[in-house]
Amino acid sequence: MTTAREIMTAGAECVGAQESVLDAARKMTELGVGALPICGTDNRLKGVLTDRDIVVKVLGKGKDPAGCTAGELAQGEAVTIGADDDADEILRTMSSHKVRRLPVIDGHDLVGMVALADVARALPDPKVGDLLEVLSSD
């Protein structure tokens, strides 16, 4: 069975919890990504910051992206997947938490990210279709 390690994009870069949302947006632009894991000063994963978070929770509410931190947008414990978890677990986790991107961890170390596009490339169409249906519903 296909594992997260096999389909993930390796080498995910973090945005520090104390970095500004503006700096995070610049990093997303430089890397060409729509999400960044948020890491604390202890190098532990605190959450994931998405481009949508920036638009809805910062810009849409009239906040200054230079004045708020990535860590302020981290919501509770981050939803993750283990590097050796199989594709069915990836599908279950994305579906149950309604997320399109999952940080991949090996022990406590962040080793990559699995995005919906990675899943679509790696798995059979019916399974991907089912996941898309769940993620698209309210």
UniProtKB/TrEMBL annotation:
Coiled coil: none annotated. SMART domains: CBS (SM00116). Residues 8-65, 73-131 form the CBS domain. This is CBS domain-containing protein. The keyword Transferase does not apply. PROSITE patterns: CBS. Keywords: CBS domain.
